[in-house]
Amino acid sequence: MMRIFMLVVMVMSGTATSQLPEFSQQYRQRLGGAIDALEEILADFNRDASAHGLTSAEAIARQQSSEDPFVRARGDSMLNAEIRLSRLKEQEVDLQNAGPIERLVIFTRGFDPQLAQATAEDYEPAVPVTTAGFASAGVGALIGFLVLRVLAGVLRLGRRRRTVSDERV
Asked: Signal peptide location in the record (predicted)?
């Protein structure tokens, strides 16, 4: 019975982790869209700044030093957009230059929370037929196996201790 239970757990954990490459792939698609959107916003801002004889940094500084709280908040937003765009572009390059397994490591190490949340909301599971999908499934199955082995060992140890203490009485 334990072997069947262990097999079920391994299949379930393997299936769950096999979805990581697909989630990562859907995240990468959104990553490109987010970069395009931020570039468009910042290009408009830079055109407006240039039309007034300002660099982007000067325009943001002017907004941030404004007496108007709304204008100050917009300055903070533009600065955050520049920082986020830089971070997303760096991640995009890293993901493009990485192999399938390395992409998973890069994704888990530095995903953008907003982008990951949006990806999760629209995520569609897929059958993993890639090397990364099979590797992820294998790792998940192994983790499920190891967790059950540890739990079974703890339960056996608890039973042994009770048996030994019962024999002493």
From this structure: 1-18
The CA-atom distances, in angstroms, between 148 and each of 21, 54, 141 are: 25, 63, 11
Q: Percent helix, strand and coil across the chain, each rounded to 5?
A: 85, 0, 15
83-133 pLDDT per residue, tens? 999 999 999 999 999 988 888 889 888 889 999 999 999 888 876 667 777
Taking phi first (over 0 means left), then psi (-120 to 50 degrees means alpha), and beta for anything else, what does residue 53 get? Answer: left
Tokens of 111: 């995903």
* pLDDT value at 164 more than 60: no
Burial grade of 138 (CB within 10 A; 0-12, 13-18, 19 or more): middle
Query: Can you give the pLDDT at residue 90?
Result: 95
Tokens (6 digits) for 140: 């998940």
Give yes or no for a contact between 15 and 138, defined as CB atoms under 8 angstroms apart.
no
- Structure tokens given for 164: 């030994």
Which tokens sit at 137? 């499934």
What's the pTM?
Answer: 0.68
* Cβ-based burial of 122 (10 A; exposed 0-12, middle 13-18, buried ≥19): exposed
